[in-house]
Amino acid sequence: MPHLTKDTRHRMTITLNGKQRSGFAEPRLLLTDFLRHELGATGTHVGCEHGVCGACTIRLDGEAVRGCLTLAVQVNGRRIDTIEGLSRDDGSFSVLQAAMARNHALQCGFCTAGILMSLDHFLTENPDADEAAVRDMLSGHLCRCTGYTGIVRAALETIADKKKERDETHV
Ligand code: FES
Ligand code: FES
Predict the structure, then answer these.
(1) Which of 5, 19, 107, 121 has a CA positioned 20 to 30 A from the CA of residue 88?
(2) How many H helices and E strands in the chain?
(3) 35/72 Cα distance (integer angstroms)
(4) Residue 3 confidence (pLDDT)
(5) Could you tell me the residue range of the domain that residue 133 belongs to?
(6) How far apart are the first and last CA of the chain?
(7) Per the domain annotation, does 63 fall within a domain?
């Protein structure tokens, strides 16, 4: 006689980078695994899986959060933004992405999606942040390749570029 197990998966619908996406999640499934394996959004990386490295950082209703510390079922009906949605609508780099590329702010790129999502949130909340504040924020991310110099430079250039944009629109 076959052993029948109850299907405990929840049907989930989220707004992922502006589009409604649906899938199923076991109650214990991590958000990172839901994004990567159920929805195929593999831009979000998984490193330590216990909240230390920051590689899994996504935005949940605008806030930067660790995807590996969030259960998928917690985000049903909510807005998730990931690295796949960070570029401009025409597919070109955002100001921050362009600054990262210009400053060679990545090597293997494993940490990069998480750092971009955190920086994107941080720079929105702190448009005039100084180098110390940027470095303090980056202390929540582990990058084994770059020594952080290019990342810090990219963040500071983004702050300067956005300030220039703001000044020009207010002239
Ligand atoms: S994988 Fe989430 S913090 Fe490292
Ligand atoms: S670029 Fe390799 S870990 Fe950051």
Answers:
(1) 107
(2) 5, 5
(3) 8
(4) 67
(5) 95-169
(6) 78
(7) yes
Question: What is the rounded CA–CA span in Å between residue 13 and residue 23?
Answer: 7
CATH code: domain of residue 68: 3.10.20.30
Number of domains within the chain: 2
Measured from the alpha carbon of residue 149, the closest ligand is: 2
Does the beta carbon of 36 sit less than 6 angstroms from any atom of ligand 1? no
Could you give the CA distance from residue 82 to residue 124 in angstroms, rounded to a whole number?
16
Given this model, what pLDDT does residue 107 score?
Answer: 96
pTM: 0.93
Task: Dump strand ranges (E) for the chain.
Answer: 10-16, 19-25, 57-60, 63-66, 79-81
Q: Which listed ligand is nearest to 33 at the C-alpha?
A: 1
Could you tell me the distance, in angstroms and rounded to a whole number, from the CA of residue 111 to the centre of ligand 1?
10
**Atom nearest to 54 CA in ligand 1:** 3
Pocket lining: 143 vs ligand 2, CB cutoff 6 Å: yes
Q: Does residue 141 fall inside a structural domain?
A: yes
Is the confidence at residue 162, as pLDDT, over 90? yes
Which tokens hold the place of 1?
Answer: 């006689």
